[in-house]
Amino acid sequence: MTKYLLVIVHLVCLLAVLPGFGQENDWLAGTWNGVYFGEKSKLTKTFDTRLQISRVHGSQFEGVVQCILPSDTAVRLHTRITGKIYKDHIMTKLKEVVYFKDPPGQYTWAKHCHLCDSMKLSFEKVGDSVVLQGERRCDTLCNIVARYTKDAGLLKYKAAFLYEPDISPRRLATKTAGTSFTFVKPVYKDSLVGRDFFAGRAVAPANRYLINADSAEIRFMDNGIVDGDTISIFYNGQLIVPKLYLKEKPHIIKVPLFPGYPNRLVIYAESLGSFPPNTALVRIIYGKKEESFLLSSSMSKSGSIELINSK
Fold it and tell me: Most CB within 10 Å of its CB: which of 70, 102, 136, 181?
């Protein structure tokens, strides 16, 4: 009798735990809005897109991805997808076209895209949103960068990667606004040092600068002709300047240099301007010393530097 009771207790505990495993990936379910950027598209470089995840079962999911022409939303392509969820990314596979309406003229949607390779989309918390982003290289029409976002508060389930690491805040005044900004230092195991992928994009190898100070002033401006370059600036994984339009007049920030590991600054291109790639002139000023250099980024790769407190 005791043996049977132990078996029953074990089964009850197992059934109690299983729903937790089922919920672990439910954060992906629902609708994600975003954009496709297709450099070689014959119709337009930028499309609106919608990712609708209708079913999540364990690590597997399925749904529909919609590609929509911004100038005429009736012109669109809907393709069924399946995929799998991993620790820090998802893989999606196009299956078959379920609806399309071609634009007028000779252009037609690439309805054979289900023959392309699977697409890897990283997921990451950026500010108050979760960002899914990846790139597919197939044929001329299917070479795209995809980016989807959703407010983290709208997720059905709060995934493990959304929980903040143990952080120690530090407050510094910014030069431009005269206000203060709280910088956070991730614990070492959660730092971004050595990562070659961030916010859905590859990151170029970082140049390292030894700074004999506890803080530094950094200035960002356009390199030469002001052509509409827009960037977002991340520091130690924290968004500190969103969608900055680069001008001749520098945008000035002051950042703390946390000791013990490289402080990483990433420039994320929001637009490429009239003359790609997106190139920013960056000046680092500390004490009476200065470092100046160009930092380039594109819609698939971000520029980065690492600042080491050598004091």
Answer: 136
Q: What is the mean pLDDT of residues 154-168?
A: 64
Predicted structure pTM score: 0.50
Chosen domain end from 113, 142, 160: 160
4-39 b/e (C-beta count within 10 Å ≥ 16 → b): eeeeeeeeeeeeeeeeeeeeebbbbbbebebbbbbe
Q: Is the pLDDT of residue 284 over 90?
A: yes
Q: Is the dihedral of CA 31, 39, 245, 251 positive or negative?
A: positive
List the structure tokens of 42: 């014959």
Residues 151 and 238 in one domain: no
- Structural domains of the chain, count: 2
Do 109 and 78 meet the contact criterion of CB atoms below 8 Å apart?
no
For the purposes of burial, counting CB atoms within 10 Å of the CB of 229, is it exposed (0-12), middle (13-18) or buried (19 or more)? buried
Tell me the per-residue pLDDT of 13-33, one tens digit each, with 9 for 90 and over. Answer: 444 433 434 457 888 999 999
Q: Residues 92, 218: one domain?
A: no
Give the pLDDT band of residue 217 (cuts 50, 70, 90).
very high
Indicate if the pLDDT at residue 93 is higher than 70. yes
Q: For the domain that residue 33 is a member of, what is the CATH number?
A: 2.40.128.120
